[in-house]
Design brief:
By secondary structure, the chain is mainly α. The chain has one domain (3-74): Non-ribosomal Peptide Synthetase Peptidyl Carrier Protein, Chain A (Orthogonal Bundle). It has helices spanning 3-15, 36-50, 56-61, 65-74. Helix 1 packs antiparallel against helix 2 (36-50). The radius of gyration is 11 Å and the shape is globular. The N and C termini lie close together (12 Å).
């Protein structure tokens, strides 16, 4: 499983939506279950899956799929 698939699986599991629904349009605005509690769950799940630690600023900023990928790239995760 590549990193793109791993990330989609994490989002799919946290938000209880099909992985096929996770694309560059996936955001707090397009996924109904993406609320503040699930955002925290998402951050923790991504940190665990990719062995990274987000800053408080990054945690607040990653409100859509492209920003999550960009932030992970900043932590050395290749996509």
């Amino acid at each position: 499983m590549n990193n793109e698939q791993k990330l989609k699986t994490v989002l799919s599991n946290v938000f209880n939506v099909p992985a096929s629904q996770i694309d560059d349009n996936a955001s707090v605005d397009t996924i109904e279950s993406w609320d503040s509690l699930n955002h925290l769950n998402l951050v923790l799940a991504i940190e665990q899956e990719f062995a990274v630690s987000f800053t408080e600023e990054e945690t607040v900023e990653i409100m859509n799929y492209p920003l999550i990928k960009m932030t992970l790239k900043d932590h050395g995760i290749a996509f």
